[in-house]
Each structure stands twice: as structure tokens, then as C-alpha cells.
Amino acid sequence: MQAWQVHENGEPGEVMRCTDVAPPTPGEGQVLLRVRAADVNFPDALLCRGQYQVRPPLPFTPGLEICGETEDGRRMLANPVLPYGGFAEYAVAEAAALLPAPESLDDAEAAALHIGYQTGWFGLHRRAALREGETLLVHAAAGGVGSAAVQLGKAAGARVVGVVGGAAKAAVARELGCDVVIDRRTEDVIAAVKEATGGRGADVIYDPVGGTAYEQSTKVVAFEGRIVVVGFAGGSIPRPALNHALVKNYAILGLHWGLYNTKNPALVRHCHDELTELAARGAVKPLVSERVPLGAAADAVQRVADGTTTGRIVVVPEKGAVV
What we know:
The protein is an alpha/beta fold and 323 residues long. It is built from twelve helices and 15 strands. It has helices at 12-15, 42-49, 107-112, 115-127, 144-155, 167-176, 189-196, 212-220, 242-248, 260-263, 265-280, 297-306; strands at residues 2-6, 16-20, 30-39, 65-69, 75-78, 90-94, 99-100, 135-139, 159-164, 180-183, 202-207, 221-229, 251-254, 288-292, 312-315.
């Protein structure tokens, strides 16, 4: 079968190689899935660089979430078991962790509903307890993670302020439903948020960027506000001044969604049920900006790593691949 492999760490466009390999053999409690669609995530780039919290042995196939098909024809969402990731014709996953793909979404949309939307749901509801009528600020609002948070915030009845980089991404954020869009390239983010909130600030801030975005968050978080830290796509990990959190009465909440798969898998399934219901009534719909063939996977991962994309890029292998 065809699969992308990483034999040494580095930039995705340089170290990912498409090769013919033997299909993976599932272990005990695992299943073989034909990959119908594989979503590209920023952590795929971190895997290639050797900077992710999980470091699979070389060589490995990246691709952390898929919509796959079981031998009996069921469409399922899965996080493939590394080193047999999703940028291949077939992948391996834990049978107990499979989730049914929502009927309301096609393969690419279903693949994109999983990690980003689960992270958004846990961050906004489980960690930050977002309430109807509150103001939610989302950094990188036009990206894969940010776009999910925007939709989930609107579905919860929040007023959503989206921060983006560039006019094209600003247009995407408006289409997603942001009530206020701030272009960090042409506007003063801190001043614009204060103006949009009448000086009060945002009740909940969703930050997948870190670095400067986090520093801005501390200056615009409301009294008793909550900053949810979900990643560091900007490349810089901030060092919070805890005295500042004390004097302004705000909370800094960390979120590593993957831990719930081992610490509380029942809650992951509950979240999936909630997301499936939201998708069925059209309250959320993954923003799939591109569907690319398997041969374009390395380029797709590199572009996500470079921050030049909007929404999600999804790799769609050829149908009818032969094991």
C-alpha cells in the first residue's frame, strides 16, 4: 500500500516520503481501517519535527485523525495508533476508541470533526464553563482549531470576537459567524478588543497560538475571565506572571484533550454525541478548505505548519485501495 513515512526529524516537506510498504497488522484489541479521509493537524508537523509530546519510533506515518472504514463497511472516526498514522491507504486504531462518523457529514468533514471540535468542546464547556451571553475571544479564528471554537461558541450563545492574520482570513472568520473580527496585521488587538467589549474584556479566551497572542490575552481578559491554553502554534511558549492573574482575578486553564482518552473515555464519547447532534442540526460544520489526494499530503502538512491555511486540509486517498 501507499504510505507517507518519516525516517528522520525535520520540516514535513523535507522529511515526509511516500513509499510502498506492507499494510500494518493490527495488534490485540486493534482494527485495520481503510482510510477514507485523513485530517491534517498542526501536531502532525510537530511529529515530523520531533517536537510533539508523543515521539513514535522512526520510521513512522503521521496523520492523527481519520474517517476510516471497517471490514464490515462502517464509517468510523479514529485516532490511528502510531507508527501507523492516517496519511496512508490503511491505518490501525484501537477498536474500543472508534466513534461512529456522523451521517450528516461527508468523509472529509467527519474526519475534521474529531480532535479540533473535541478540544473546543472540552475547552469551552468542561474547562471554561462558557455561558450564554458571555464574550468569547478566539485567536487564529480562521484556522482549523479556531474555526471549531468559533462555531461551538456561537452554538453556546456567546458573542464571539475572532482574531486573525490577514484580510482573507478575516473574511473566513466573518463567514464562520464571528460578531467582531480583528486583523492583527492591521489593527491593535488590545485596543480593538477593549473597544468591542466596552472596556470590559473577554470572559473566555481560547488560545491555540501562545506567544504574543497569550500576552495580549492577559491584557484583555475580563474580571473573573478564563484563558484556555490549547497549544503554541506561534512557536513560543509563554511564561505566565501569576501575580498578574492574582491582581486581575482571572484563571489560566490548560487543556490536553488526549488525556481524556485515558482518564475519562466516557466523557469523550459523550462529547462526540453532543457534536453529532450539533452537526445534525447544522449548528457546527467543519470548515474543509481543501481536499487533496494522498500524494499531496506532505505539502499539506507543510502549509499547515507554515500557518498559511484556513480551516482544515483533508487528505482523501483513492477509493478502492488494495491491501
